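Handout, section B. The chain below has 444 residues.
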Amino acid sequence: MKISRLLSLLLALALLLGVCPLAFAESVEDENPLLATVDGKEVRYSDVSVLFNYLIEYYGGEGYDMTGAENLAVVRAWSMEDALQTILINRYAAEHGLDVFTQEEEQELRETTDTQWEEMLDSYIEYYANNPDDISDEELQQLRENGAAYYGSIGFPYDYNLQLNRQSIINERVQAEVCKDVTVSDAEIQAEYEARVAESEDFAGDAMYYELYTYYFGYDLYIMPEGYRAVKQILLPADEALMAEYTRLSALWEEQAVEDAEAATPTDLSADAVTYEQVEAARAAVLEAARETVDEIMAQLEAGTSFDQLMAIYGTDPLMADEPTATRGIYVHPDSLMWSPALIEAAFSVENPGDVAAPVVDSEGIHIVLYVDDVPGGPVPLDDTLRATLYESLLAAKETETFQSEVARWIAEADVQYTEAGEAWNPGILDQYTEAESEEAEAE
């Protein structure tokens, strides 16, 4: 069962604020004034206040001035639109029997909410307990009661969490019904694929740029630069003391190299300077300590044991145990950012697919590297897996657009009447700010 997105955001904000009360609350003379009616259904302040206060706190925390008239108008409009949508979605759900929960569904709903509630209370207790690991039953019970009261005071009592989770499920059901005939054609998949390939073309000639965006920034790119090799490796652990010494000397050696490169004139080595020979000796010591295991692996490879079998027995690299890298290997380029110079050197030290490089050492351990194959450069093939990924992405986008358009139509066709107190919440008030911005742009 999915957790309500709004609930997740609200709880994240509450925890982000360090368990402190919301600082901003709309001042109203009537505690719960009537703001609007939607085909006769009332919208009161209590229907918009929690989201309103959340948005005020969130954007205020992001550095926006939330006391200005325009920002307040925007947040009020968003909160009112959410309330209108909820009313009309629930009406549709009732008309189509989508708001009925079986006994099993009710139980699952409450179990989900119970879990959330316990996590909320645990967070409160951890924040306020003097020593969370050593707390009496009486103190624990008092903190639980205080936590429940606190969450109630900021608008998140148990029943509200339950309501949000129920609404989330109803929303999903209504969207599924509204979008039941939405499909994605092969032509749309092909067009999306070609568009993504075109967007990735800037990365085609630069492996460092490619890896920066794929591995570090999490982009999905659809072009592979030329020059990659697929390799597998058996990563062996190294003697901790020897590895610590090798790592220390390597770091000092690299630091010296940077200092020498930045110096206006070459500097003489001091008595305590690290030499290349010392680094190499430390590396050799790491390798020698694992010589028996390395020789055993090499002998078994020579005897015909498959690299994959030995990788499963000796290897400690999690990438070699998880798909897709367990099957295809990792992709290494001479300019790779992701892999150590030692691993890159090993990957390109052999000539033919199937060759195994001499063991190398880096800070992770000892690598025995198999050259699996060359990785074709150019656009990523549109295979069944990628086709399915694009289908799901396009379908989700089309369903969201279809659902939002349908709900917008329901609102446009509904009889929405605002009270005097509710005029400030009317989304139509935003038009005056849009018009003012347009006039300012024209004047410039």
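Note. The longest strand covers residues 365-374. Compare this with the example in section A.
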